[in-house]
Amino acid sequence: MSFIANFGWLAIVIMILAFLCEYMDASLGMGYGTTLTPVLLFFVEDIVMIVPAVLLSEFFAGIVSATFHIIFRNVKIGQKDKAKNPIKGLNSNIIETRTTSDITTPSDKNSKIDETGNRFTKSIRKLTRDTKIVLILAFFGILGAICSSVINMIFHTNDTFNFSAKIYIGLMVMAMGIVIIVLRNKEQKFSYKKIVSLGILAGFNKGLSGGGYGPITVSGQILAGREGRSAIASTSLSETLVCFVGVTAYIITNIIIMNHGDLAITWEYLKYAPYLIIGAVLSAPLAALTTKKVKTKWLKIAVGWGTIVLGLFSIIRYSLHFAGIW
Q1: What is the pTM of this model?
Q2: HEC string of 267-314?
Q3: Cβ–Cβ contacts within 10 Å for residue 71, how many?
Q4: Mean pLDDT across the stretch 56-70?
């Protein structure tokens, strides 16, 4: 544990903060980066020393969290269960075989293309709802993570733009929390169109500000008719992929900049990552178990109020930062 000896109390504080923030994030699906980054700025002034380390730790913690969410069956990943009635399953297979033989011939290339497309469509349909939602959220989140590097490179020196984007995210997060609380007793009809729209919105927000992914995807899924624990687990899985792309993009960008400037490649900006990883990974199993045990009614209320608090916290924090106070 030589890395703890090098920093002493700071390493312990960072691990405790990572533990608490990851517990909140993995159990409610939000709050790790949104809360941890501004808090760490009290101890580390350079944000470049924080963001990549937070992304890397969230990736490792996300793997552990996602694994335990699957073990505790908060989310079902893979294909749907096969029909229990063997006769029904046999009949459906016969129907599929006859239909395929009727519409395809060995010499018809267009039919072969159609058959390939049909097989792809059938394979997608066999996936569980949770799997489809994770893929949709991850796809648009990854696009957002890639766009964020481009947007930040273009506008990183424009303080007004950065402030406006973060206030916008804070207001949207808080508004979604309020809507959840108001509509918590009203049943919402599930729709994949809502999930696709949610993925686009969350990806756009991620690209615009680098944050706000978890609060938007969890609260948005609940408003789209998803059960609380499934929404949380799906967000945890999809955000893990997004964090991997984000930290990879950051590392590649840093290497390119170092090579372009004929500078020695350094990993100094990841020196806080080990403490964050330890704290975050230790809390992930406990957080997944909490999600499993808490009743859906209280989980929805917790997500609603948690989203409101995070949105308000972001607005206050970035307003004070823009004013030069924090």
Answers
A1: 0.75
A2: CHHHCCHHHHHHHHHHHHHHHHHHHHHCCHHHHHHHHHHHHHHHHHHH
A3: 12
A4: 91
